[in-house]
Specification:
It is a single chain. The protein is an alpha+beta fold. The chain has one domain: YjbQ-like (Jelly Rolls, Sandwich), CATH 2.60.120. It is 23% helix and 36% strand. The chain is built from 3 helices and 8 strands. The strands form 2 sheets. It has a 5-stranded antiparallel sheet with strand order 1-8-3-5-6, covered by helices on one side.
């Protein structure tokens, strides 16, 4: 059993939502019981648990793009750095989630999915999946 797996998410726009649940399930194939930590080494993207629906994806992007907009101007924009909102919003959602694998299945609620939110794309992003097997 591999305990560390990575995969890449290619984002297609400045703000982008992608469901990465299937890639995580593929990464844990053959694991009966474990904790799985899914994380990203990027400060302008986030990973979170939520329902995946086309209209809701648009809402996530709208919330992310508009929540911090009234707070402009930001101090972080020094040296022509225009991605302050991306840094701030991704830190609010977080760079990782920890999940449970039991009886070979990822334990998620009926409507839960692992979603990846890009705030400063389009880019190629790395996702880390680390397994901590239960004894």
């Amino acid at each position: 059993m591999e305990t560390h797996v990575t995969f890449t998410v290619s984002t297609g726009a400045k703000q982008w939502v992608d469901n990465i649940t299937t890639q995580i399930v593929e990464s844990i194939r053959g694991v009966e019981r474990a904790l799985v930590h899914v994380s990203i080494p990027h400060t302008t993207a986030a990973i979170f648990l939520a329902e995946d629906d086309a209209e809701l994806r648009e809402d996530y992007i709208k919330i992310a793009a508009e929540t911090l907009a009234p707070l402009r101007p930001f101090k972080h924009i020094r040296k022509n750095n225009p991605n302050t909102e991306a840094h701030a919003f991704s830190s609010m959602l977080g760079g990782g989630v920890t999940l449970v694998v039991n009886n070979g299945a990822l334990q998620l609620g009926t409507y839960q999915n692992v979603l990846f939110l890009e705030m400063d794309g389009p880019k190629e992003r790395t996702v880390h999946v680390d397994l901590f097997a239960a004894t």
